[in-house]
Structure formats: structure tokens, C-alpha cells
Design goal:
6-stranded parallel beta sheet; Helix Hairpins; alpha/beta; 48% helix; 14 helices
Length: 439
């Protein structure tokens, strides 16, 4: 048996090591994401390297040519232009401004060189502007700009905010509710249209939004998971695996942070519970619970709705649920099954929305002896023996009566053409010539 004091110190030091490891991991992920957000623009700007080099070479050659070509002053004496004067002349000439010939009128050689330099700079500017326009239309460049802008917005937040992963219908309602309470929040969603709708939404404050995959821990770190003002994480995506990834990332990077996740599968809910203690919400179960409460205690449901409406909300009217009758559930998916189970748990019967098996008219068969149609020629050895087979056989005669289809048992008439009585109906019969009721 070990020493209790030693175990206490080991437990304390182990917790400190775990806390340091978690803080180190959070800082590493946040630093990597911030560096990626700031360096992506420079990586994409490499596409402008060739146009910029072409422009620089054209300017350098033009300036060098103006300094080497001799000119004349007002007295007719030879004069050479300096580098500053040549750069000044090429600056307003290549930019199509035109400022005249300074400090002295140019000679024909200088004018010829300036003319060549003008055409070269026009070609260089056309190449550079075309590359810049193509770069501005590039999707990766716009994503990098959006990531840079988003990271700056999040880093400038100095008040508590909520991180929402998934901006569908539920996320939009939750965002408007928090905005009405004066709370800030940050949104992550894979759809560009939803982020555009977020920017066009009528919110009181500026809501940072990024079109990115919430399953990436780097995107969560950029969205403020490691921010000191982040107070909770809500996973509301339509992908349960993505919600599970958000719960795992939050549990590993910020274990003290409250996490609320949407889940409809019990297996995924059990996997989420293995990472910390997140609050899982099953919308189908929650709707069924609310339905049961509204049927059982309308006053309690009225009070719960009023408390959930937020401060300043009016008391809703009390419902009057039906006390008798049958419920028709249209659709038997996940929500339909949950509602049916809740209705049955409350003692209400709900007929299934699936079509029932139809009732068919089944025959009631009896056996009769009927003559054989056509002629039958006896072999010679049978005619000599004096034996003559019967000219009759047994066949079923059926009359129709309404019976359930489940009570039908197939039977067959005797195959031999003899006068022997027909055997009773047997379940082993395979023929479809007649259908007999089950005995």
C-alpha cells in the first residue's frame, strides 16, 4: 500500500502537467492557425512575382538608357541626365501622365529611347494588371482575405462571446436570440450562402463569420476557441460526425469550456459523453417531451414556454389539448417514431401511417368428379387385358368468399387421371391452380 501523501503529490503534479500540456497544445494550435491566416496572402501573392519582375526590369533598363544617352543643354554643350532625373522622367512617362522634357529639351536619340520605353512599359502594365485581376478573382485568394479579415475581427473581441458551429435554421434563431440579449457570437459554417446571409442580417453588432469546415481544429482556433473571452461552444451542424469532432476538439483544447451539441443518434451521443461532459440535445426527444408535457399539463407547458422566451416576453396563451380521439401521424421517419412512442407512453393510440395489407376474396374449394375432355387411346396390351381406366378425374371447383390474405394456403389437384379420391389440402403443395382456406 503506497503512501497517501505521495499519492496526493503525484495527483497534484499530474494535474499541473496535464494543464500545462493542454495550454501548450491550445497555444500551438492557435499560433499555427494565426500564422496560416497571415502567411496565406503572401503565399498567393507569389503569383504576382513575374509581373512585378517584368515591370522592374523595364523601368531599370529605361532609366539606365536615359542616363547613358547624351543630351544638350540650352548652350549646346553635351549633358548627361542623372539617375534621379531619369527615374523622375520615367515615372510620369510610364504612368501615362506626361510632364514634358526636363530639365532641357531632349535630343532625337533621347526621344527615340523614351518612345521605346513607353511601349515597353505599356506592355508591362497590361501584363501586371491582367495578373492582378486574375488573382482577385481567384477563390483561394478570396478565402485567404476572408480568413485574414475574420481572424482580425475575432482577435479584437474584448467581451464574452459564443462560438456557434453551424448556421442553419436553428443557428439563425439562436443567433437572433443572443443578439436580442446583447450577447456577441462567432459563426462557422461550410456554406458560403449562409455566411453571406449572416453579413446581410439585421444584427445589432458586427458578427464575425467564416465559411470553413468546423471539423478542423485550426478553424475552431481561428474562430476563437482559444480566446480568453470565449465562454461556450455550440455545435449545430447537420452532420453528427462534425458535431462530434467539435466536441472532441473543445474537450482536448478547452476542457473547462461548456459545450452544447446537437445529436439525433444514441450511438453518437454515447461517444460524445466519452469526451468530458457535454450537453447533448436530441431535437426529436425534446419535441416529444414538450408534446407529452403539453398533453399532460398544459399549465406547466405554458410556464416553460414563457420562461424560455427570454426577458420581457409576454405570457403565451394556455393550450387546450384534445382529451379523446385518435392521432394520425403523417410520416414514420425518426421524428414520426419518436412522436408515436411518446403518444403511446401517454396512453394515446395512434394508427400507423403505413398502408395495411388489403383483404382479398379467397376461394373456398371443394373436390368433384368431372369427365375428361377429349379422347384417350388405350395401348394394345391394356386392351387385351380387359381393363379399362375410368373416364373421369377429380378437379377442384371453387367458390369465392372474403377471407384475409394471411389465411390462404396453396393446394394442388391430383396429378393422376384416376378415379381415386383427391388428397386433402396440404401446405406442401406448390400448384397455383387453386387456393384453399387454412384448416
Amino acid at each position: 500500500m503506497g503512501s497517501p501523501l505521495l499519492a496526493f503529490w503525484m495527483n497534484l503534479l499530474g494535474r499541473e502537467d496535464d494543464d500545462r500540456r493542454v495550454r501548450r497544445t491550445t497555444f500551438r494550435v492557435a499560433a499555427t492557425s494565426a500564422a496560416q491566416a497571415s502567411a496565406t496572402i503572401f503565399l498567393i501573392l507569389r503569383r504576382m512575382r513575374a509581373p512585378l519582375i517584368v515591370l522592374i526590369v523595364i523601368f531599370a533598363v529605361s532609366v539606365l538608357g536615359l542616363t547613358l544617352i547624351p543630351g544638350q543643354d540650352t548652350q549646346g554643350a553635351p549633358w548627361r541626365m542623372g539617375f534621379f532625373d531619369a527615374f523622375y522622367v520615367m515615372s510620369y512617362t510610364a504612368s501615362t501622365i506626361g510632364f514634358g522634357e526636363i530639365p532641357y529639351p531632349f535630343t532625337y536619340s533621347q526621344r527615340m529611347w523614351v518612345t521605346i520605353s513607353i511601349y515597353l512599359t505599356v506592355i508591362g502594365w497590361a501584363y501586371a494588371i491582367g495578373s492582378l485581376l486574375a488573382l482577385l478573382q481567384d477563390r483561394a485568394f478570396r478565402s485567404a482575405l476572408a480568413l485574414q479579415h475574420f481572424s482580425r475581427k475575432v482577435s479584437r473581441l474584448h467581451e464574452p462571446f459564443l462560438l456557434i458551429a453551424g448556421y442553419g435554421r436553428t443557428g439563425e434563431l439562436l443567433g437572433h436570440s443572443f443578439d436580442a440579449l446583447g450577447r456577441r457570437f462567432v459563426v462557422l459554417d461550410r456554406s458560403d450562402e449562409r455566411i453571406d446571409a449572416l453579413e446581410l442580417g439585421s444584427y445589432r453588432g458586427d458578427v464575425p463569420g467564416l465559411a470553413a469546415d468546423a471539423r478542423d481544429p485550426g478553424h475552431l482556433a481561428v474562430a476563437g476557441l482559444g480566446h480568453a473571452c470565449c465562454e461556450a461552444v455550440v455545435a449545430l451542424t447537420d452532420d453528427e460526425e462534425a458535431n462530434l469532432a467539435v466536441v472532441m476538439a473543445a474537450a482536448l483544447l478547452r476542457p473547462e469550456l461548456p459545450v452544447i451539441a446537437r445529436v439525433t443518434s444514441h450511438a453518437i451521443a454515447e461517444r460524445m459523453q466519452a469526451f468530458g461532459n457535454p450537453s447533448t440535445v436530441n431535437p426529436f426527444d425534446r419535441f416529444g417531451d414538450h408534446l407529452r408535457l403539453a398533453l399532460r399539463a398544459p399549465s406547466s407547458y405554458q410556464l416553460m414556454t414563457w420562461l424560455e422566451s427570454g426577458p420581457g416576453a409576454e405570457l403565451p396563451s394556455r393550450g387546450d389539448p384534445p382529451r379523446s380521439g385518435r392521432w394520425i401521424v403523417c410520416g414514420y421517419g425518426r421524428l414520426g417514431r419518436e412522436v408515436t412512442m411518446d403518444l403511446r407512453a401517454e396512453g394515446w393510440t395512434s394508427p400507423s401511417s403505413r398502408p395495411t395489407r388489403p383483404t382479398w376474396r379467397t376461394p373456398t374449394c371443394s373436390w368433384a368428379t368431372v369427365p375428361i375432355r377429349g379422347s384417350w387411346r388405350r395401348p394394345t396390351w391394356i386392351a387385351r387385358s380387359g381393363w379399362s381406366p375410368a373416364r373421369t378425374t377429380t378437379r377442384p371447383t371453387c367458390r369465392w368468399s372474403p377471407r384475409p390474405a394471411a389465411a390462404i394456403r396453396r393446394c394442388s389437384s391430383p396429378r393422376g387421371r384416376t378415379g381415386r379420391p383427391a388428397p386433402p389440402c396440404s401446405p406442401r403443395c406448390r400448384s397455383t391452380r387453386c387456393s384453399c382456406p387454412a384448416s
